[in-house]
Design goal:
By secondary structure, this protein is mainly beta. It contains 1 helix and 9 strands. The chain has a 5-stranded antiparallel sheet, with no helix packed on it. Strands 5-7-3-9 form a 4-stranded antiparallel sheet, with no helix packed on it.
């Protein structure tokens, strides 16, 4: 009888010691704050060839209008809607050159990035609206047309290269 009890008792002890007691795992959590800190950002980057050259070499050049199209003239990046203005920094040099307003600037509507372009904006030292209400963008490329519609005011000027600097300004709304 001792043998009959010994075998089941040994088996019971082996089962008890073979099973390890495991601690109960409970889930815990902690909240984490995620912040997105934004700062207004805007920039203008000029294209590869920003210089605009009107060339008058023949008599026929002085009888018709000329337009120089600058595709991809500059790119604007802005996290908010914006307006574009254009202004010349000074009159044409050398002194006695043509009036600034002989050159007009135009952004075709296809290049206005959702904004409203002003047509044929004459150059001036006072900033003039070029495009109003353009949408926020990660890289809107602008095509700009420079036009001399009536070259008559170029008559009687001495042979020279007359130049000025044009500045484009993007202002967030």
């Amino acid at each position: 009888m001792k043998k009959n009890l010994f075998i089941p008792l040994t088996a019971l002890v082996a089962i008890c010691f073979g099973n390890q007691a495991k601690a109960q795992v409970t889930a815990t959590s902690q909240p984490v704050t995620v912040n997105i800190n934004l700062t207004d950002a805007i920039s203008i980057t000029l294209g590869a060839t920003p210089t605009v050259n009107f060339t008058y070499t023949t008599a026929a050049d002085y009888t018709a209008s000329k337009t120089i199209e600058k595709a991809g003239h500059f790119t604007v990046v802005s996290n908010k809607p914006y307006n574009l203005t254009v202004a010349a920094t000074a009159a044409f040099t050398p002194a006695g050159g043509p009036a600034l307003d002989i050159v007009t600037v135009n952004v075709p509507s296809a290049s206005a990035n959702g904004g409203t372009p002003e047509a044929n904006v004459p150059l001036s030292t006072t900033p003039a609206a070029l495009v109003n209400g353009s949408t926020a963008t990660t890289g809107a490329s602008y095509t700009v047309d420079y036009t001399i519609a009536d070259p008559a005011s170029l008559l009687n000027l001495g042979a020279s290269a007359y130049s000025t600097t044009v500045t484009y300004t993007a202002t967030q709304l």
